[in-house]
């Protein structure tokens, strides 16, 4: 009985930035749990290739969409594409993100804006775009990718930490506004996972050792370890959970 709560059969999930890294892992996990999935990328070929790979691995109906999630018109078109293909949208995973590492005094305005637009403005635009459909069907699951760095800090991450802290606050507001419509909104806060985004840190021996010294489990997270967590947040297994920030960081923020 309890395992049935994790099933996503008949659900439709949209994962922004689902063409690589944690986004791809989460998209495939949702498909394996039974959902039809749409994945996005700024590059057409990558979106199509990722969607095809998930379809081949899981046998699920998939869609690849090319979109700049910082552009409101493109975001609206993206949602229309999902509705046109699948007829509904049940799960939104706001995963697309970027990190630019610079000391504050060297942070140019364009770099700051790019991080804020990608990490904070885009989840707002995507959530706003899916709201009418989720409200209409009186069901929805929105998962906003924050970070452990929404709760703690590191040098040279001023834009990233600020944007991810904002994601948690946006999550709380959406959770309160949309609770009457049976739309649950939660933030997922990954810690140090061995993904493309973290290659600069992993390839720097000093920085890598600094990270490992803060991780209670003593290692980087494996991307596939996030799959079961996103299934939990996207499914009825988390039906009484909204406005929360779920941390998966190997124990870093327990210090």
What would you note in describing this structure?
The chain is of the alpha/beta class and 255 residues long. The protein has a single domain, classed as NAD(P)-binding Rossmann-like Domain (Rossmann fold, 3-Layer(aba) Sandwich). 45% of the residues lie in helices and 15% in strands. It contains 8 helices and 7 strands, in the order E-H-E-H-E-H-E-H-E-H-E-H-H-H-E. The chain has a 7-stranded parallel β-sheet, sandwiched between helices. Helix 4 (109-137) links the parallel strand 4 and strand 5 (140-145). Helix 1 (21-32) crosses helix 8, helix 3 packs parallel to helix 4 (109-137) and helix 4 runs parallel beside helix 5. The longest helix has 29 residues, at 109-137. It is globular. The model has no long low-confidence stretch (mean pLDDT 96).
User: Regarding CATH, which class?
Assistant: Alpha Beta
Oligomer: single chain
How many angstroms does the end-to-end distance come to? 37 Å
Compute the CA-based radius of gyration. Answer: 17 Å
Report the uncertain regions.
none
Number of strands: 7
Q: What strand line-up does the widest sheet have?
A: 3-2-1-4-5-6-7
Q: State the helix count.
A: 8
